[in-house]
Each structure stands twice: as C-alpha cells, then as structure tokens.
Specification:
elongated, 2 helices, single chain, mainly alpha, 72 residues
Amino acid sequence: MQKLLHSFIEAVANTASGFILSMLAVQFIFPVVGVTMDLRQNFMATGIMTIVSVARSYAWRRIFNRLHARIG
C-alpha cells in the first residue's frame, strides 16, 4: 500500500505539469472563445484550480488504496 506522503507527492507532481499546461492553454485558447485574462488573473485562476486538483487527486488515491487494502 502506498504511504500517505507518497500519495501526496505523486498528486503534486502530476498536478504541477497540469499547472504549466493550463497557464499556456489559457493564453492561447481563451482568446479564441472571447475570454481574456492578464497574466496575474491567469496565475490566480490556475493556482486555485491546481489546489483543487491536488486535493481531488489525493482523495481519490487514498480511496483506491483503502479499497485495494480491503480487497487484496
């Protein structure tokens, strides 16, 4: 079973790449659909969603680890 800290580190590493991709995507995709954000707004919005994503990923990892421990 994966330790709590390892679950958290994996979730952060996974989300860090998503943070960078999101910052880039917002700069190129949002203007196409008529939404504009300056760099500060982009960073804030992406930062908030990154925190939510880390928490979500961590929670799912712990749920599946707990299920795995019960089954196997």
